[in-house]
Amino acid sequence: MYNPFHSAMMLSIEAQKVIELRLVRIAWGGQAGQDEIQSMVAEKINASIEAFGTLMTGGSAETVVARYREHVAANTVRLSAS
């Protein structure tokens, strides 16, 4: 059975790993910490603009959540590699 909240629930679980990785990088400080803070803010702004555009052009909330999950997965890979 299809559960429309499954993707949103998975997003919240997956995002916790990115939050953990970012907090560690920020806690270490230095230029890497500053760069992560700037990256985080820029990503949030860009993601909200993208989500707004998707919804305004007839996209569904499920499409927005799926795209956010792609961003989260990319951040997990990027932050885990360092």
Which helices and strands occur, and which strands form pairs?
Layout (H helix, E strand, L loop, with lengths): L5 H23 L1 H27 L4 H21 L1
Helix pairs in contact: 1-2, 1-3, 2-3
What do these coordinates show?
87% of the residues lie in helices and 0% in strands. It has 82 residues and is mostly helical.
- DSSP helix count? 3
Q: Evaluate the radius of gyration.
A: 14 Å
Helical percent range? over 70%
Strand content: under 5%
Short description:
This protein has 82 residues and is mostly helical. It has helices at residues 6-28, 30-56, 61-81.
Give keywords.
mainly alpha; 82 residues
